Hints:
Strand order of the largest sheet: 6-7-8-9-10
Low-confidence stretches: none
Helix content: 10-25%
Shape: elongated
Number of strands: 10
Distance between the termini: 89 Å
Number of helices: 3
Strand content: over 45%
Radius of gyration: 29 Å
Mean pLDDT: 86
Order of helices and strands: HEEEHHEEEEEEE
Amino acid sequence: DQKKISSLLEQNYCLLGASVSHQALIDYINEEFIINFIIDAHNEAEIKDINFEGLSTLNESYVKKLVDLKPGQCFRRSQIINAVGNLHASGLFLSATPIIPNKTDENGQVPIIFKVKERKMRNIKLGINYSTDKDLRITGSLEWKHQNLFGNGENITLRLNGNKTKQESELNYQKPFFIRDDQTFNIKGKYNYEYIKAYNAKI
Length: 203
């Protein structure tokens, strides 16, 4: 069917664009039903370069690793769709739209431009809880998070919880593409303190 033909074209050719339609014919004399598939294929193309519009805090070299496209690579629409999915999956973008020319240049290449809008990278959450078991106890909490600490998607989260007798703190840091593109560096630290009131027991 049309979907299978489109999939075969995508897998085996570097087409800038292709459409598949069909025409149904009925042969009453031979009692046959004939379907002709019509393929409208554009020029074959390679990716010339990859650029971005709208970056403000993210480094372009890091974002290029996210899209995982290379100059000289066979142009395939499915890979562009995957690249957009990778940008959204990173959690760093509100929107990402690819801009692709309708024609190749004289060398059979097309530049790819992603028009993006970054998310707000920093978030702060505050909370207050209270308990009336035995004595009134008020507990405060703070969470500070930065999703792009140094411009390369470094994620750091600091959590603080505490009251007058117990305090907890936790720090998480994550750096993608650490040394290798398939490797992520993670480090976690945690600190707990609890005050236990001493008492004397009489026998």
